Amino acid sequence: MINAAKLSVREYQKIVETGLFADRRIELIDGNLVEVSPETPYHANSNNKLYKYFLTLFNNLADVRSAHPVSLLNSEPQPDLVLAKLPDILYDKKHPEPEDIYLLIEISYSTLSYDLNEKKQVYAKSNIQEYWIIDLENHRLIIFKDPQKEDYQNKLELNDGFVSCIALPDILIEVNKLIH
Out of the domains of life, which is the source (predicted)? Predict the structure, then answer.
């Protein structure tokens, strides 16, 4: 068995800059290259609706980013949605890093196990303060807070009502707009 060397975020970024992965959807997860599944129309449209909804809620309060990379500890995933600190000029020369990220969201339709395990561990290890999974198949929002080492200490599941994120608690988010 051959053990492949794990890549650093910087090494991965250098490879991306060469255009080697231009025709493939690749993420760096815990030092490993992972091919991202193609999006179903349902997932893509859910992501588009989420992006537009969050733009209306967080305009001038956060940089709303859809399906763009974030640079974490040994990982550079492309979460479905990120709320990051303003001004957006911060990201002209770098992707948002943990200290820039208010909220990170993954939309799960066929990737729930991956989002609940590998992705959750990566986000907790990187000290992402709040991670949400929109579980489209089971029509629920799963919220993780309080990262400690490779896991989150608090988990909450919602099917309706309103919720807010830690960083911007005055903005109420309608759960039904996320899960349907």
Answer: Bacteria
